[in-house]
């Protein structure tokens, strides 16, 4: 077997990225994603593309924030691993999969080849997530009307709420941040992401009971691919009352009022209460995602 050649692409040879089968339907999932040619890399053997990866970030980012398109040909797991290992950016890897992929032999084999390559490159699984997409034909979720929503210009209020929300959480990314740097890091990472999103700060909202007690927060957002449910969180002492649905319904309505024609969302598969709320609010699962993170980072 000849050696693998790793190539970072340019505008002139970006077509090489397309010279590979797409059994997991990544192209359809990335119709709205904008990739930079020089953040795409391929592994070649005898001139044939046997693995490919597309790193992604916002339009103003100097480095990618993750790699969210990664393919490996059958039997070429080591080439895929080398593609990841040799990259100048060691960031989180997202492997997006069709819903029900485990039940179809060909999809499962394709997914497991990518998992094997990721592990061989030193990446470890972090989370399995459901990806949702609301469209107008689903109908707007009913607003229960139990809470009072207001904007809040002070980031400190959101930071304190996030610390309380993440003090008891099922979210794998929040748990990773807590392990690395405590609740302050988990809260700050959320705030940094919200500020990174190209949507108005004025959309962020605090939710309270009619008596004025804090219930939680919701963040309607736009990421570079479109409108999304940025964050839904209920403080621990208010849980068990179904308030996460109220927050999700309000977040959906606000985005539609701002012109959204579709809304994406995601939650960890282990977070069954939030998954149930997405279903109740009319958000169908359209894909699944496995997140890997580079070894040596806390999980």
Automatic annotation (TrEMBL):
PROSITE patterns: GNAT
Domain N-acetyltransferase: 163-299
Any Pfam family the entry gives: Acetyltransf_1
Taxonomy, superkingdom: Bacteria
InterPro entries for the chain: Acyl_CoA_acyltransferase (IPR016181), GNAT_dom (IPR000182)
Protein name: GNAT family N-acetyltransferase
Source organism (scientific name): Streptomyces noboritoensis
């Amino acid at each position: 077997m000849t050696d693998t050649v790793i190539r970072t692409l340019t505008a002139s040879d970006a077509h090489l990225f397309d010279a590979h089968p797409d059994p997991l339907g990544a192209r359809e999932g990335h119709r709205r994603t904008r990739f930079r040619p020089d953040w795409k890399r391929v592994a070649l053997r005898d001139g044939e593309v046997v693995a490919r990866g597309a790193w992604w970030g916002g339009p103003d980012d100097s480095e990618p924030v993750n790699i969210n398109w990664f393919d490996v040909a059958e039997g070429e797991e080591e080439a895929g691993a080398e593609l990841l290992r040799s990259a100048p950016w060691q960031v989180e890897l997202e492997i997006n999969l069709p819903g029900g992929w485990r039940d179809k032999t060909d999809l499962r084999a394709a997914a497991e080849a990518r998992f094997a390559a990721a592990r061989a490159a030193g990446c470890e699984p972090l989370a399995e997530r459901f990806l949702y997409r609301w469209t107008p034909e689903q109908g707007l979720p009913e607003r229960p009307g139990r809470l009072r929503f207001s904007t809040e210009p002070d980031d400190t209020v959101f930071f304190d709420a996030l610390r309380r929300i993440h003090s008891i959480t099922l979210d794998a990314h929040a748990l990773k941040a807590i392990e690395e740097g405590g609740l302050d890091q988990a809260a700050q990472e959320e705030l940094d992401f919200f500020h990174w999103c190209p949507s108005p700060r004025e959309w962020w909202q605090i939710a309270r009971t009619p008596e004025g007690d804090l219930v939680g927060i919701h963040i309607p957002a736009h990421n570079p691919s479109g409108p999304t449910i940025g964050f839904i969180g209920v403080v621990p002492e208010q849980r068990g009352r179904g308030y996460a649905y109220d927050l999700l319904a309000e977040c959906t309505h606000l985005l539609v009022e701002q012109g959204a024609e579709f809304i994406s969302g995601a939650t960890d598969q282990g977070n069954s209460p939030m998954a149930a709320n997405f279903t109740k609010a009319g958000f169908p699962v359209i894909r699944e995602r496995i997140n890997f993170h580079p070894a040596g980072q806390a999980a």
